[in-house]
Amino acid sequence: MSDPQETSRLEHHIRRRLVSGFLVIVPLWITFVVLRMLFHVMASLLVPILDDLPFFKDRSDQALALLAVVIFLVTVYAIGTITAFVMGRRFVAIGERVIMRIPVVKSIYSAVRQVVDTFSISEKAQFKSVVLVQYPRLGLHVIAFVTGTITDSMGRKLVKVFIPHAPNPMSGFLQLMAEDELICTNLTVEDGIKMIVSIGVISPNRIELCKKADAAQEKAS
Fold first, then answer.
1. How is 184-197 classified by DSSP, letter by letter?
2. Which one, out of 4, 68, 111, 157, has a CA that is 20 to 30 A from the CA of 208?
3. Which residue has the higher pLDDT, 61 or 82?
């Protein structure tokens, strides 16, 4: 008869390897499916228009599809350039206000916008570093992001710390904390966001910690 303990270890080993394989394959598969879907959508929208133009009459479907993708990317780049200016941002804001007044479209748009904002949060929020703070009580540590500093009327420098909710880092709490209350880490902002979004499933094997006050003393010395 086989050893039950050995069988259990084998099952655990197989299960872990399967999970590891899925964690690699699933993101790649989703990326492929999304890119293929976007390609077909862009082609279906622009190819009929290009096919009606005299210059593109005798072009192959593959060439027209590739040209459609190029036109789409150039259009997206142009929109991004326009929204970089104040007037462009105002037009976008007006358009969003109109969309948010349409009952069904509002729900879909807000959900998609939240997902997009989650993936672009590291660029938008301008987080400086990842720290640990004791919250909601002493002895419990949570991941937080430093967004800057502020000085109060007594001349004390306080650190602006954003404590996000998991798995949605777009919501959370903003705290003003003394610098010596923070524990700095070697985590990058991207690492911190991955940990929040994955509720801790994706994380480095080791985190280097140091007190903010200790780090300041080391720099001074």
1. EES--HHHHHHHHH
2. 157
3. 82
Q: What's this model's pTM, rounded to 2 decimal places?
A: 0.49
Residue 123 has pLDDT above 60, yes or no: no
Residue 135 clears pLDDT 80, i.e. is over it: yes
CB atoms within 10 A of CB 160: 15
Strand partners, 146: 129, 161
Half-sphere exposure of 173 (CA within 13 A, CB side): 9
How do residues 38-78 score in pLDDT, each as one tens digit?
777 777 777 776 666 666 666 666 676 777 778 778 887 88
Contact between 159 and 176 under an 8 Å Cβ cutoff? The reply is yes
Strands 209-211 and 183-185: antiparallel
pLDDT score of 132 more than 90: yes
Task: Look at residue 156 and give its three-state secondary structure.
Answer: coil
Both structure tokens of 204: 């480095």
Tell the burial category of 69 from Cβ atoms under 10 Å away from its Cβ (0-12, 13-18, 19+). middle
Beta carbons of 196 and 189 less than 8 angstroms apart: no
* First-to-last C-alpha distance (Å) of the chain: 66
